[in-house]
What we know:
- The structure is a homodimer of 265-residue chains.
- With 265 residues, chain A is mainly alpha-helical.
- Chain A has eleven helices and no strands.
- In chain A, α2 (31-45) crosses α3 (52-59), α6 (131-145) crosses α7 (151-182) and α7 (151-182) packs antiparallel against α11 (221-242).
- At the A-B interface, α6, α7, α8, α9 and α10 of A face α6, α7, α8, α9 and α10 of B.
- Chain A binds a DNA duplex (30 and 30 nucleotides) through loops.
Amino acid sequence: MANFSGRILPLLWRHTQPARRTTGRPPRLSVDAVVTAGIRIADADGLEAASMARVAADLGVATMTLYTYVPSRADLIDLMVDEVLAARGLTHDPEADFRAKVADFAGRTRAMHVAHPWLTDVSLVRPPLGPGMLAEREFMIAAVAALGLPVERVNRAALAITAFVYAFAREDAEDARLRSTSGQSTESWWLERNELWERWFDVEAHPAMTTLWNAGGFHSAEEQTQGAFEYGLNLLLDGIERSVQPGRQAEPGRQAEPGRQAGPG
Amino acid sequence: MANFSGRILPLLWRHTQPARRTTGRPPRLSVDAVVTAGIRIADADGLEAASMARVAADLGVATMTLYTYVPSRADLIDLMVDEVLAARGLTHDPEADFRAKVADFAGRTRAMHVAHPWLTDVSLVRPPLGPGMLAEREFMIAAVAALGLPVERVNRAALAITAFVYAFAREDAEDARLRSTSGQSTESWWLERNELWERWFDVEAHPAMTTLWNAGGFHSAEEQTQGAFEYGLNLLLDGIERSVQPGRQAEPGRQAEPGRQAGPG
DNA sequence: ACTGTTCCCGTAGGGTATACGGAATCATGG
DNA sequence: CCATGATTCCGTATACCCTACGGGAACAGT
């Protein structure tokens, strides 16, 4: 109770409450304008660039004016997050099958992170409880529940998939951000650090890596990441589907191959 | 090449290079002392509290003195990260079975994050290339390779598991940090926001959530997270083990083309 | 005492969030 | 036209942050 202003929930759900006032001095801005400006600046120059001073300057008002629209910068960031979560446009399609729904979710979530890399700077442990956040939970729970999983496992499965998708989406976004911020690709970053292998890497202390290296098991960072994502996500989805179709047995050779991948395609 | 000082790799691997100089004024501190102080402060008050001024003050020297030991604050953070990665003490145990190794990795990684919650503020997309980071890669690759997975899938599987474990370890750490920082448990945070369900939640727009709720499918945040972690990790491990079941033999030394990329990423 | 080397650190500059209180601007009623 | 109430607008002040630069201090060896 200490810090909770109680003002953030009405702000998050402001679009379901068209209540307007007619008394007093009319506002020059709106909450939406402030949130949109914050997103625009954070997209361009990072979350820390979206300072109250910078947002206000972009909107042509003084810094303190923003505080009549949002209670604090932390609340503004919550509003920005829920805004882009909602902008994914996750909508339940009862016709689509399970894997198609998950692929849709993964593709939109990855695109969202790449478009708004500052999302990786925000913790979602206590997320903004707005329409965007709830739309995500509804979408994933509906997708899993439609499979007919036991009640106890529905939310487990939805959360496991969500966490996995977010982890790789954040990684991609971070990679894209570093590329544009530092002007250097991950590939050239590794090349620049070639000294690691030449001078510091101890072959005897790392036999498994050395063996895998000699066997050609390492590829570019991008391939590794994308491969791990498709591989792992397919394992999760296979396991979830299998637990609901006991008749179907596992086929060891069947792995993540084209046609079943869940990335944005 | 623009920004790379070339000084960070020698610092990361400083313990393999006991080279000492005897000329010039003897130092009052050491790189280890600076790194340790940084970790201590970040543990107590967060990563942003571990400023150059604060670390210097804790060590009883002027701020600028630190720059004799580390090139920049970003490099200091890299050193702090690799230090705690190494402190997990991941050691390869050929006797243990696959699931025991992964459980060991997960337990140590989670404990590390809870002890050093500031890790969640650090991106590991371009990680510190030091002993701690390499020990982790060696450990996971050794664990997966021992199963006898095809070369092409070893790193995929290792990375998928690592990403999944880190995602939940970060979540736990973030939760612990928020609890101690805000003095409020996640449970009471949710209770405080009960207005969401009473006033803003639209039942018709969220049928799947509503159904699951009425069926008793939601539990405390802690139970949900822990359940999702165990459930998802087991699906990953099941799938990996299953894909190798028939052959059941490890061949680490298989011949293949040499690695054609910069390094294990 | 001199030299080479290294460590130590003061200064200066351009950033950040927000509490507080007063000024400005509107609709309305008389 | 003026008074009133409600609301928006914003200037000020505070205490932090990182690090480039360059000069002074302290040591070993001769």
